[in-house]
Design goal:
By secondary structure, this protein is α/β, with parallel strands linked by helices. It has 16 helices and ten strands.
């Protein structure tokens, strides 16, 4: 089964154990199947479910032990004990190949900008890693946008500045990378989202009833957005209460706002170039790819460790494999209490304990390297490609930059 993934056999589900009826059904099935152990595989929402299931089973004297495996391509399930999640290495290398291809296309045709949105709902780890691998002309990271408190108008202006600078040297083309969760980091848009989430949780589901209930500032932000984008913000939330960011086309939003800004600059004589943009969303192309050698080895280690924890009657633990920059035979395996990863968060109009998300560390090595190098990428075509994923020979076991930087 090596290099064959596995979720095509297991299947994938976003059902959340939330009500007492949900837990009662889970207990009933666990007893009927006489389960000694249950493994939850997924990101922070799934790991949150694992903790609640472990606790509920213990309270109701169900013998089934529960452990979780960190598996999210977003890379946001990470801490001192969990160095990375399975899938991140594969997806970033797939996206890097695609982004690099677009870079060379832009350089060859010399007529268009590629606005690329990558998966990464609540953190920008994927965008950062892909930027380090491919060297786009600009890459926006949500965490930096939040730290700098950039509004949508200011982000638009910075992108327009880049395009004007490149036009001044007769380069009306390039590549921009953004994470799909960017809008949640833009202060004015994020404030709007919080109010929309509360209203939707209360049963409001129509623009005509929602807009009047917004605060004055949120209403102003909503009104300033293109109609199509405003409609996307009202889409039904996922089972965990999250905005379905894969359906929100932030790359098209930026294309529209940048186009308008450039038109205004051209009217003032501040811009003389031409602007043509092509939107791209890279999502499922990455998460369905055949795994890298690293993810294969990591998956084996996580699976064996999950079995060992359950066999030892441990429950409420996340599987932990460390020293990942060493050869696989030197990795150290164990478990990490899920309760140590949790904090209080507000969802669906109520507060509750959830597993923490790990955001890009703006004081970490990976971001510092990116910040130092990106200045050189703005006006050049220094696009880098590692080619398709390799399973043999020299490039097969190359580690991603983020993992190496985080463990340094």
């Amino acid at each position: 089964m090596r290099w064959q993934g596995g979720f095509h056999m297991l299947g994938s589900d976003r059902t959340k154990l939330e009500t007492e009826a949900d837990f009662e059904r889970a207990r009933k099935v666990a007893k009927e199947l006489d389960l000694d152990g249950l493994v939850f595989i997924g990101g922070f929402d799934t790991n949150t479910n694992a903790m609640y299931a472990a606790e509920n089973f213990k309270v109701h004297n169900v013998k089934t032990n529960v452990v979780s495996v960190p598996s999210t391509i977003d890379g946001d399930l990470r801490n001192e004990q969990l160095q990375t999640s399975i899938g991140f290495d594969t997806v970033t290398k797939v996206y890097a190949e695609l982004i690099a291809n677009l870079g060379y296309d832009a350089y060859s045709a010399k007529k268009s900008y590629h606005f690329c949105r990558l998966m990464g709902r609540h953190a920008s780890h994927v965008a950062l890693e892909v930027a380090l691998q491919t060297r786009p002309n600009m890459c926006l990271l949500g965490e930096e946008v939040r730290r700098r408190m950039l509004t949508l108008a200011e982000i638009t202006s910075e992108i327009a500045d880049l395009i004007c600078e490149r036009a001044a040297v007769d380069k009306n083309y390039g590549v921009l990378v953004v994470p799909e969760g960017l809008i949640e980091f833009i202060p004015d848009v994020n404030d709007l989202l919080k109010e929309l989430n509360e209203l939707l949780a209360k049963g409001h589901n129509d623009r005509s009833t929602i807009v009047p209930e917004l605060s004055e500032s949120a209403r102003a932000t909503f009104s300033a957005l293109p109609d199509s984008f405003g409609t996307q913000l009202l889409f039904e939330r996922d089972p965990h209460g999250n905005v379905q960011l894969s359906r929100i086309e932030v790359e098209r939003l930026l294309m529209e706002t940048v186009k308008k800004e450039l038109s205004e600059r051209k009217a003032r004589g501040a811009y003389k170039g031409s602007f043509s943009a092509i939107p791209h969303y890279f999502g499922y192309e990455g998460r369905c790819a055949l795994p890298t050698n690293f993810d294969c080895n990591y998956g084996y280690a996580l699976g064996h460790t999950a079995g060992a924890l359950l066999e030892s009657s441990n429950s409420g633990y996340a599987v932990s494999v460390s020293d990942l920059t060493s050869a696989p035979e030197k990795w150290e395996c164990g478990g990490y209490p899920l309760t140590m990863m949790m904090s209080i968060e507000r969802r669906k109009g109520a507060s509750g304990a959830v597993v923490n998300r790990s955001l890009v560390n703006l004081d970490g090595i990976a971001f510092k390297v990116f910040k130092e190098q990106r200045v050189n990428w703005r006006l050049t075509e220094d696009y880098r490609t590692s080619g398709p994923i390799q399973h043999f020979d020299q490039m097969a076991d190359t580690l991603n930059f983020t993992l190496q930087a985080n463990i340094c």
